Amino acid sequence: MVVSLAKGQRVSLEKVAPGLTEIFVGLGWDTKLTDGSYDFDLDASVFLLGSNEKLISDKHFIFYNNLTSPDSSKSVEHTGDNLTGEGEGDDEVIKVNLQKVPSDVEKIVVTVTIHEAAERGQNFGQVDNAFVRVVNAKSNEEVIRYDLTEDCSIETAMIMAEIYRKNGEWRVNAVSAGYQGGLQALLDRYQS
What we know:
This protein is mainly beta.
């Protein structure tokens, strides 16, 4: 059974999928028909934060130019950049082995930004059907889904969800916080 979250809702992964150890986070979107001449290139990124809510190091920022976390087991892996978002299903995927995420990682922040949004005159108001979902990597069963329904007509960066530790278990928070300033705005927030 899939748990659908609304903005601000939190849920324990252990309660919705007992024994879950390996997940992938799928992100997808469509673009509304616009008269623009540029394709939309949305990019999923992950920030691995310590207890101070900041990146542990620059290598803990996982994106299309740094596909794996710095720990020896590579517990978090970005599967690559989708330049157009065309097609059905997940446009970009982040794999997470929950058992192997190092203990200094308190929170995994899942974000989406629009590449060159300012230069191309693009924003999330021109994006449709955006979602983030958590899938059991072993069974391929979707366990949590969050559909972005807010109007984000000026935002160029979105924090979609957080996967975080609380009392020894992993939880998911549907965040949906938008920022102007694209990826740089998120880097400014999470770098120490």
